[in-house]
Design goal:
By secondary structure, the chain is mainly beta. About 10% of the residues lie in helices and about 50% in strands.
């Protein structure tokens, strides 16, 4: 009985999820929010199989004077998939003219289970005028993979 109930629940979730996430798209694309004395920068996207998604550009001017090697940026990663483990690679790219982007740092690249993980990024201490996220679905990535990254940026103004 439990098995039948579970199969019905999975079938219902698939019917609800697949039309919504049939192709990759951003739902939170470089969204800034204030949280106490720090700011958060959120990215949420659905990744369909081997999609390549690039986010809106964002600026980190307020934090450019700091050494990101000495003071790395903490961030959280949430990965989910109803159909199986999401397989994603996520990069940060930088640009000094807003058009030509270069690799700054790899945030993560792996086959993951549904989990919340915590990391820090030093962005290889590369400074740029604007940054963007690049998300790649690795071969065999499930069509309903969801990824959410939240950067926690803090800097006390003097």
């Amino acid at each position: 009985m439990k098995r039948i109930t579970m199969m019905i629940c999975v079938a219902l979730l698939l019917m609800i999820s697949i039309p919504v996430f049939a192709s990759g798209a951003w739902t939170s694309n470089a969204v800034w929010a204030k949280s106490g004395e720090d700011q958060t920068l959120t990215f949420t996207c659905s990744v369909d199989s081997v999609d390549t998604l690039t986010s809106n550009s964002f600026r980190l001017d307020k934090y450019n004077s700091d050494s990101w090697t000495t003071y790395p940026i903490p961030y959280q990663v949430y990965n989910t998939s109803v159909l199986g483990a999401p397989k994603l690679t996520v990069y940060i790219q930088g640009s000094n003219d807003g058009t030509n982007f270069f690799a700054v740092d790899t945030l993560f690249s792996d086959d993951v289970t549904e989990t919340v993980r915590y990391f820090t990024a030093n962005l290889n201490n590369k400074k740029a005028v604007v940054f963007r996220m690049a998300v790649y679905g690795i071969a065999l990535c499930r069509s309903d993979a969801l990824m959410r990254i939240i950067f926690h940026l803090y800097r006390r103004d003097n």
